C-alpha cells in the first residue's frame, strides 16, 4: 500500500511538473523580453555608433522636460479632478428651509458648472485644448493681471507652465470621471455607518470612501498617467524643447529622420513600459482583495 501511495505521489509530481513547464510557455512575458532585447540593442548602438550617440546626446535634454511636464500636469489634474469628482459624485437635492435651499442651490450651480466643464473638455481634441490655452486663455489672463494687479507679471503662452496648465485642464476632466465612478462604487451603507458614528462628510471621504475608491480605480488612473507621458509630446507645437521637439530639430538639420525618430520612440517606449510595470506592481500591492 505504501509503495502504491509513493508511486501515485511521484506520478502527480511529474504531472504537475509537466503542466508547469507547459504553462511557462503561455505565462512568461515574452513581449517584455522582446522589448528588453530591443532596448539593449539601442543601448549598444548608442555606445558603439557615433551617429546614435550624437542623437541621444541631443535628445536626452528633452527627457527631463518631458517628465517634468507630465508629472506636474498629472498632479495638478489629479487635484482638480478630485474636486470635480467630489462635486459630481453627489447630485444636489432640494433643501428644506431658507439655509437648506441656499446650500442646495449653490450645490446645483457647482454641479452644473462641473458637468459643463467635463463635457466640454472631454469633447475637444487635446491639441485644440493646448492651442486655446496657450494662445487665447493665457494671454487674456496675463493681460488682465498686468492691467489690474501686477504690471510686471509676464507669462508666455508658448512656455512649459502654459503646457502644464493645458494638459492638466484636459486630463482633470478624464480623471474626475474615473474618480467619480470609484466613489460611487462604494456601498452607501459605509457612508451611512460613518455618518452615524458622528464623522463629518470630509472625514468620511478621507478615511472611508476615498482610500477604497482610489484602490479600485488605480488601473485606469495609471493608464491616464501613461497617456499623459505620450500626450506631452504635443507641447512641441509650442516650441518647448521636449524629446519630440529636439528630435524634430535634429532630424531637420541632419536629415537623419529614421535614426532620430527610432531613438526618440525607444525613449518614449522605455518610459511608458516602465510606468506600466510600476502600475501593475501597485495594482497587485493594493489590490482590493488583498
Question: Could you describe the 3D structure shown?
Answer:
This protein is mainly α. The chain is flat and about 75 Å long. The longest helix has 40 residues, at 50-89. The chain has one domain: MetI-like fold, CATH 1.10.3720.10. The model has no long low-confidence stretch (mean pLDDT 86). It has helices spanning 2-27, 30-48, 50-89, 97-123, 126-148, 160-184, 188-196, 201-216, 218-231, 243-254, 257-285. The chain contains eleven helices and no strands.
Helix and strand arrangement:
Layout: H1 2-27, H2 30-48, H3 50-89, H4 97-123, H5 126-148, H6 160-184, H7 188-196, H8 201-216, H9 218-231, H10 243-254, H11 257-285
Global structural class:
mainly alpha
- Whole-angstrom Rg: 26 Å
Strand content: under 5%
CATH topology: MetI-like fold
Unreliable spans are: none
Number of domains: 1
How many alpha or pi helices? Answer: 11
In CATH terms, what is the architecture?
A: Orthogonal Bundle
N-to-C span: 42 Å
The CATH class is Mainly Alpha
Mean pLDDT: 86
Summarize the amount of helix as a percent range.
over 70%
What oligomeric state do the depicted chains represent?
single chain
Biggest sheet layout: none
H and E string: HHHHHHHHHHH
CATH fourth-tier homologous superfamily: MetI-like
Tell the overall outline: flat
The total beta strand count reads 0
Entry summary:
This protein is an all-alpha fold. It is built from eleven helices and no strands. The longest helix is centred in the first third of the chain and has 40 residues.
